[in-house]
Write a structure and sequence with these properties.
The protein is mostly helical. It has one domain. Helices cover 71% and strands 0% of the residues. The longest helix has 13 residues. The relative contact order is 0.22. This is DUF2388 domain-containing protein. Keywords: Signal.
Amino acid sequence: MPRTLLICALLALSAPAWAGSFAGTSAGASSAGSSASSGSTSDDDKIVLQARDDAASFVASEGRIRGAQLEAALRQLRERHPAAREASDLQLAQAILAQ
């Protein structure tokens, strides 16, 4: 299952679940996979995967450090996944790290 689908599943859950273990989100991942569009590609996954270091810096600095790769991933997630439009930057960064 593409990583972007997993992020959508994480976004569907409450914020405390994002901080929890990835195992706790596996049920949401299966339902997201059945309803998500097939527009996600491995390029999407690559952009999100490359943003992990930036996401870690963003979370650790409480939003003060914003890297270019994180910005690209946030933009892409919001363009392709409606649930991501409702989430804060911090919530999305935490979801990226939870993968």
